[in-house]
């Protein structure tokens, strides 16, 4: 849903901010996919500790006054489990990949819809 902005008593859609947010989310989802695939590839390596991408919780911590486009995602190591023990759970990583795939589909449809509407407005059909 496009972000709304009030200007001179009228509500306007801020398409630049909305597309910037969509691009940021697509970048985060690509990073999350790459990280989960790295975890899966190392599921049998003794002592390997999985990594995860933090973004949504960073947005919550920053609050509504900070634009999500200003927040940089972080890749952090999950050090849970015994030292020297691999903590990758294949089903958890596959769940992350599935969720990421669905969100990627939603975001690409959102961007595609925006540009389709823009194209119709420009070409008049």
Topology of this protein?
Layout: E1 4-7, E2 10-13, H1 15-41, E3 51-54, H2 56-62, E4 74-77, H3 90-123
Antiparallel strand pairs: 1-2, 3-4
Determine the N-to-C terminus distance.
23 Å
The whole-number mean of residue pLDDT values reads 87
What's the number of helices? 3
Which overall shape is indicated by the principal axes computed on the Cα atoms? Answer: elongated
- CA radius of gyration is 19 Å
Strand order of the largest sheet: 1-2
Largest sheet report: 2 strands, antiparallel
Total beta strands: 4
Which spans of ≥5 residues are poorly predicted at pLDDT below 50?
1-6
Output the structural class.
Answer: alpha+beta
Strand content: 5-15%
Q: What does this molecule look like?
A:
The chain is an alpha+beta fold. The protein has a domain at 50-110. The protein has three helices and four strands, in the order ββαβαβα. The protein has a two-stranded antiparallel ribbon. Strands 3-4 form a two-stranded antiparallel sheet. α1 (15-41) runs antiparallel to α3 (90-123). The longest helix is centred in the last third of the chain and has 34 residues, at 90-123. It starts with a strand and ends with a helix.
């Amino acid at each position: 849903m496009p972000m709304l902005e009030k200007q001179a008593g009228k509500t306007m859609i801020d398409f630049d901010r909305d597309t910037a947010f969509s691009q940021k989310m697509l970048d985060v989802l690509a990073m999350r996919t790459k990280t989960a695939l790295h975890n899966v590839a190392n599921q049998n390596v003794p002592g390997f500790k999985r990594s995860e991408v933090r973004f949504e919780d960073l947005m919550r911590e920053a609050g509504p006054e900070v634009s999500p486009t200003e927040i940089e995602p972080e890749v952090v190591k999950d050090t849970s489990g015994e030292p020297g023990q691999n903590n990758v759970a294949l089903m958890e990583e596959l769940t992350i990949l599935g969720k990421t795939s669905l969100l990627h589909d939603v975001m690409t449809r959102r961007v595609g819809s925006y540009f389709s509407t823009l194209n119709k407005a420009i070409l008049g059909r």
